[in-house]
Structures are given as structure tokens and as C-alpha cells.
Amino acid sequence: MTSFSELGIAPLFIEKLKTRKIETPTDIQIRVIPRILGKEHILFRSATGTGKTFAYLLPVIQNLLEDLERKPGPAALICAPTYELAAQIKKEADFLLEDSPCRAALLTGSANISRQIDTLKKTKPLIIAGNPGRILQLERMGKLKLKAIRYIILDEADRLVSDDQLDEIRELLSKTS
């Protein structure tokens, strides 16, 4: 049986997971965590409830927190097709970041844009979770800089690259390079 420690996850995060009674990595976490820690580009699929969110959040946050040479602006961009999924991702990022000076921000079209702009100014988030349309809107307004992005995660990528969202995803990706 593989442990989070054997996968390379820092003790701080292992202790956090234990508070939720998560002590053994799932199959998808075993396959994904070492590859993201190794900074590989990866595409994976996993059913709901298999630990997919922590499979990418744990190594991404660990890598970002270890890098003290960070450029200003968010370093990880997580796109989700729905408010509910984006909010869930942000909640899990908050859980992992709670004892650090870094923050996550939720940017979705269903929320007040003025509050989101204030959040971006005040918290200077390390991680952005949200919908492509709102993220692009804030970038076009000059309120969100995407040049420091080092990780792009498309959660439920099949939905995000469907005909109705593909143009937004392409534009978003072009603004991060």
C-alpha cells in the first residue's frame, strides 16, 4: 500500500488530510501526484468521488509553496464549467492553504464582479478557481493578470472544450503564455 509520504507529499499536508480522516491515497492520486510534483504535463480522467481534486491540488500547491521566486499574480488557474464545482475546488484549496500566507479566489459569473475585483486586490491570490467567462472578463478589464500562471487545470475538460466554451478556453490559454 502506498502512502502520501511515499508519493512525496509534505508532512504538513498529510496532517491536514488526517483531520478529514484521509490517510491513504486513492488510485488516481497514486498515479497523478508524483507526475505533477515532477512538473509533468498530464491529462487524466477519474470518476466523481475518487479524490481527483486533491490529486491535482496537493502537488500543485506544494510545488507553488516551495517556489519562493514567485512572480506577482496568480500562479495556478483552475477552470470549471459550473459555479458549484469551482466553489468546491476553491474550498479545498482554502483548506490546504489555511496555515499559509497564500490565498485562493473564486471567480464566477454568478457573483458580484465588484466584490471579486476587491478580493483580487486585497488577497493577491496564488490560485484562481472559476469559470472561463468571468476569468476572461476580469483579464480584459485589466483586473486579473495571467502572465505568472504556471499551472492550468481544466476540471471536467470535456465540458470546457465543448463547442460552446472552446473559444473561451482557447483565448484564456493564449493569455497565459
Q: Write down how many β-strands occur, each being a DSSP E stretch of 2 or more residues.
A: 4
Structural class per helix/strand content? alpha/beta
Strand order of the largest sheet: 2-3-1-4
Total helical elements: 9
Please state roughly what percent of the residues sit in beta strands, choosing from under 5%, 5-15%, 15-25%, 25-35%, 35-45% or over 45%: 5-15%
Structural notes for this entry:
- With 177 residues, the protein is α/β, with parallel strands linked by helices.
- It is 50% helix and 9% strand.
- It has a four-stranded parallel sheet with strand order 2-3-1-4, sandwiched between helices.
- Strand 2 (104-107), helix 6 (113-123) and strand 3 form a beta-alpha-beta unit.
- The longest helix is centred in the middle third of the chain and has 15 residues, at 52-66.
- The termini are far apart.
